[in-house]
Each structure stands twice: as structure tokens, then as C-alpha cells.
Amino acid sequence: MGISSNLRTAFFFAMKDIIKDKKIFLFIFIAISFGTANAMIINGITDGLVLDLVDNTINSNTGHITIYPDQDKQYIEGVGVKEMKLKSMSGIVAYSSRLQVGGVIKNKGMAKSVSIVALDPANEEKISTIFEKIESGKALSSRDSNDIIISFRIQEDMGINTGDEVILTFENGNSKLYNVKGIIHTGVPAVDANTVYIPIEEAKQQLGMQDKASVILVRLTDKNSAAGYKPIIKQELELSDVRTWKEEVEYTLSSAATMNQLGNTIVLISLIAANVSVAVIIYVSIVNKRRQIGIMKSIGVKNSLIFTIFLIEAMFFGIAGVIGGDMLGYAVIRYLENHPFYDPLSREYLGARFGIYLLFSASMTSFGTSVLAGVYPAINAGKTNIIQAIYGGR
Amino acid sequence: MIETRELTKTYMMGKVTVKALDAINISIEQGEFMAVMGSSGSGKTTFLNMIGMLDTPSSGQILFDGVDATKLSEGAKVAFRLNRLGYIFQFFSLFDQLSAIENVTFPMMLAGNQSEPSKKAKELLEVVGLGHRFHHKPSELSGGQQQRVAIARALANNPKILLADEPTGNLDRKSSNEIVELFKQLNKEHGLTIVLVTHDQEVGGKADRIIKFRDGKIEKP
Question: Which among A134, A297, A313, B3 is most buried, taking Cβ atoms within 10 Å?
Fold first, then answer.
């Protein structure tokens, strides 16, 4: 009897067996499907969280490329010329120079050290979404000279509301009374702690600084080309401290790696749990077929064919369960993509992300473990002693 | 055709050694219809399992046409069971996931030597009087009909020897008689060697020869 004939016979018997034991098939199908879907969903959610957190950081704080002053300098000098150079480079969508200085905010007898971020509202709109994070009040405009925006922690700590007037003292000692135009909550803790946003022209006037910036944020047409632009910008702008968004979000990415590990551990445990159930169901099913296995052997079925029959059944369970799990997982991830959940901490909607690799890795892992779950019972079935199987005992 | 020489089988029951077969010497000729009788525990089923190569003797020889079966490899024993033996059990031993015709076809698929297994299976089911029950599942057949399907399955690969262990044990008298008549017909018309284990005197009485077992030994007539 050839291998193909053996396989055909094993396949024939296995399919008949599966059709007869519909309940067993259903239980195993559900266990594998949920295990597979769980693997996809957890990894899809983790991926979504990481991507949303990274996007949030890029949009609020770093841009795709962040240009800092050289190590021995406090500010980037000659910003006007550098902005012109950036403007002339293809692939750069927008840029925004920011000045960051220290200061103190005073109101109703209370004072708090703050970080003053001066920016050009018109440029900033093209590069970041920070003004979309206004919790109350309005965003800054380029025409504003007496208005500021404060982060929500300052509001909470000092009891300041929109429309209140506060005294802002700059690090050079200049003070001025400003109207609080809005309260901002970016979701980036360091930014939300004690930041005051002010139009850059007003800051230059108060600080007596011209043509200087603490940082320049750059937005590209494709964020994945940041590494390619980094050396070009360094060379063109003659600055050494130029960082890509990946370098800027290194901390987020490293915590993302931890989240992935955690996700994978949960997935592994759930797959093991699902497949132990599968193994037990298959094992019990085979134990119940002990006499049948004995009869098979008595009519001349080889051990290897019995093993093959039950392995084919396990593979069929695996394939069916994986397909079911893939469909379920895909549907749930797509649903979570379209219905993200709101994270009050980051003030962002965080959703899952579907990637074809999720389908592939969950399917392969789940199918592999399902087949493994069937191997031990199948080996046992093949080794069954004929007399014990037919007559029991002895 | 089948000869046993000093065939012995012992089991350990705790610390006690039990001799299920005690130096059995017997010769079964080709085309013979032989009944093996005896009370429960006399060793008759153990004897059948030995010559059916389902079990291995503790000592002694089983010769099929002069070839010592105890020395055959496991693979050769499987092939022998598939191609040269047909086995029928007391309990209805059909595969309940398969229809009558599929049960009969299955051994032919295993042997891979039938060009049209379905055609042959239908012929065999007609021989055993079940030409109208091809596609019925075992659960849709009576006990007698199931045993007929089991007989048809046992004949699937044209065996020379049919071994039946209490084949009428679970049947009523009418069905029992029909099955025994079927055995006689197969024996006469197809020249099958049949070894039938029974403790039913009426069934055993229809065989050409009866041997009786008692305490693992053949009782002298």
C-alpha cells in the first residue's frame, strides 16, 4: 500500500470520524478559534496602543525630525536662514521653531515655576496637533500678543481658569500680565506638568532674542524617511544634534517592547490553555474509541495509519479553528480600529491595528500548537495494545 | 493449514501465574469448519486470538502452511491479518461512523488491491443478504444485520481463514441460525476455513468438528 493510498484511506476515515463527532469538533473548534483570535486581538491592541502613543508624541512634541542646538550652545542661531534651507528641501512638509525658556507664573498670591514654550501658531498648526488638545478656551493665533495657554496641571495647581489674568515672569526678569486664552491637555505628562505656550513674536520681544530657537520641529511627507533626512539636515543646517522621531520616542518604543512581551506571554498562556483543552478533548475522544482502534488493528490497520488518522483529525481541527479564529480576530480588530477606546490619561483615542503579520503569526502558532496537542493522543492511539483495546483490562 | 505446537499462554494475575493455554497441539485443515467450545475462561478466545495473531504466545508455535507465525515481524503480522484472515467478534464491531458499504470497503482500501472496492463491497453485502442496506449506518441496522456486515467486511480481502469469536453471542435464535447458515454456506461454496468460538451447543453442532477447551487444555473426546 503506497503512501498516497495510505493517506487517502486515513483522510477518508478521519473525515468520517469528524462528521460523526460533531460535538467534539465544535468544542475543539471553539477552543482553537478563541485561542487564535485572542492571539491576534492582544497583539493588534498592543500594536495599536504603541502606534497611537508614538503618533501622539510625534504630533504633540517631536515632529518627524527634531533639531536641537549643538551641545555647547543654548540656542540655535541664524534660525531664519536655516528655515529657508528647510523650506527649499523637498519632502519637508512643514517646520516650526520653538523657544523654550524658564519662567514663573503668578496668580492670586501663588507662584509656580514653568517652562515657557514660544511658538508660531501658524507654523505649529502644520506640524503638530497640540492646539487640538485644548481642553477649554481657544488656541493661540499669530496675532495674539497678550494671550497665553497653560497646561492643565498649572490650572489645577493654581486654580486658574480661562479668561483669568496672570503675571508671567521670563528668565531674563521681564514680567507681563497675560490673559489665559486656553487650557491644554496634550497627554504627554512632561508637557502637561508645567508648560505655558506663548506666541513666539511676543516671546522674542520679551526676551530680546532674535533669530534664535531652542528647537526646530520638522514634518516630512513620509515619517519613515526620517533616518534618510537626518544626515542631509545636519549637513545643510550645519548642526550636529538632529534626531529622528524614532530616537525621540525611544523610551516609548522600549516600553512598547515590554508591552509586546507581556502581550506575547498572555497569548502564549491562553494558547497553552486552549490547546491543553484540545489535547484533553482529543485524548478523551481517543480513549472512548479504544475498542474501535482495537478492531481496526484486528482487521490489519497499521499503527502508523492509526497515528495518521488522528493526526489528520488534529490538523483538520487546527485548520478549521485557525480559520474561525482568524475571522473572529480580524473582525474584532477591525471593530476596535473603527471604535477606538478613549484613554483619559493620554487624552487620545487608542485603537487596535490590523497587520497581515498578525494573521500569519497567530495562525502558525495556533495551528502548530493544535497539531502538537493532537500528537500525543495520536501516538497513544497508534500504540494501543489490541487485546486490551478490544476486551479491556488485562 | 493451521497447526499449533505446544502453544502456551500465561498471564500474571498479581503474583499468581495463570495458564490460559497449556501446550495446545492442534491441526486445522484447509476448508474445515471447526467449532471451539468450552466454558468461560477455558481458553477458547485466547486460542482464537493466538491464531488470529492478535496476541503473542508465551511459548510454542503457530504454523500457517508451515510458516511459523510467531517469528513474523509486526508488519508481516499486520499484512497477514489484512490479507489472509477475517475476524468477527461477538460484539458488533463495525465502525459506526461508516455506512455498511463503507465498512466493507475499508479493508479493501487498506489493502489497496481492489480496482472497484464499492462494486466488490456491494457483491459481498448481497452475499450476506444485505443488498438493500448498503448505505445504512450500523445504528440503523439490527444486531443480526450488523453481524452480517461484519462478516462481509471480514471477507473483503478474500481471506483463506475466517475466525469468529462468539459471533452469535448477542443475537436471538433466529438471527443466530441465519448467521451459522451463512458460515456453512461460505465454508461450502467458497472453501473458507472457519474457526468459530462458541458455547452454544446448537451453533457448535453445525460445525464439521468440535474441540472443547477446559482450563487451557483440549478436552479429550
Answer: A313
